[in-house]
Amino acid sequence: xxxxxxxxxxxxxxxxxxxxxxxxxxxxxxxxxxxxxxxxxxxxxxxxxxxxxxxxxxxxxxxxxxxxxxxxxxxxxxxxxxxxxxxxxxxxxxxxxxxxxxxxxxxxxxxxxxxxxxxxxxxxxxxxxxxxxxxxxxxxxxxxxxxxxxxxxxxxxxxxxxxxxxxxxxxxxxxxxxxxxxxxxxxxxxxxxxxxxxxxxxxxxxxxxxxxxxxxxxxxxxxxxxxxxxxxxxxxxxxxxxxxxxxxxxxxxxxxxxxxxxxxxxxxxxxxxxxxxxxxxxxxxxxxxxxxxxxxxxxxxxxxxxxxxxxxxxxxxxxxxxxxxxxxxxxxxxxxxxxxxxxxxxxxxxxxxxxxxxxxxxxxxxxxxxxxxxxxxxxxxxxxxxxxxxxxxxxxxxxxxxxxxxxxxxxxxxxxxxxxxxxxxxxxxxxxxxx
Length: 435
Description:
- The protein is an alpha+beta fold and 435 residues long.
- Among the domains are: 2-154, no CATH class; 292-434, Histidine kinase-like ATPase, C-terminal domain (Heat Shock Protein 90), CATH 3.30.565.
- It has 12 helices and 11 strands.
- Strands 6-8-9-11-10 form a 5-stranded mixed beta sheet. Strands 1-4-3-2 form a 4-stranded antiparallel beta sheet. A two-stranded antiparallel sheet has the order 5-7.
- Strand 10 (415-420) and strand 11 (427-434) form a beta hairpin.
- The chain is rod-shaped and about 150 Å long.
């Protein structure tokens, strides 16, 4: 049952708060309306009908007397008691009691009149303002009518109006206070969501003590992560600077050497430089400059054009137009890694870019051997080399290509998805970035 209710529950915090606020008020209104108000007006109607029966019994006594003088006086008595004597032919048209479905107090009226000792045959309550009562007296059938308000509580709507007005007023006051309590939670949620997308927005903890504590913890966590990223980047940049100088001297010395073994040693030095560049790319993947608006379609088209010089790659599909807030250099490097990885193991590479209101999708497909489903999670981990399908030992790979792409996706609040290409049969790498 709870699983069934979850499908219809509001998703947002404000929606659920409104439901918590309004549901008890509506339940209280319905309960009061159906229980208290109905019973109250039924009792009032019953009591007023009992007083009416006394007057009606006095009038019926003149008809039951059978004396012509009494019958003549019945009309004057009816006027004095505020009754009207209707056409006797109307009694033949009243074959049953008639009452509207929504007339709850009318049922109490009919029940009370029939329980009285009066010779009442039928009652008609369909008229909006009058009640018609058919009587079978000793002098024959008669129809007596009177105003409905004689047996109805005066101003019956006042209690309902009072309940509704008070409910609206209390709901408004509760909403104002509840909104002030929910606003800090919403601001914390927005700051967390934006930081998950790689965007840092101004945030200051506010609200209740618990919300302030959670906000302060979030700010401290965000600052600590930023410090760790900066320290890692600075450390690797320093290591890179210190290593490049001796590597450059080795490379220069080996390039002018006449020793035959110098050629192999020079290849080792170049591979070390490539590995060093890969490490730096991985360290910079989530420590880029601030986000900026860029055209992703133009960025992908430019990257594909450059990659075409190194192998077969085609931009097959573009959909959507608009600017997206991202880190262009980081996205370009991630796309170059995907295309380069595909060109290494395949001779056909297709790239497509799809842009909609919710996300940006960049898809790279090839006709290579692909990656088994059981190894796709491992392929996105740093320093992992797959074997034998896409062995990273081929060439100068160090197992950071897909890890860099996955890290770039996470820094933009997205993810890298690996699957099998339906069109080419090889690997399908889908870079999904939240807008």
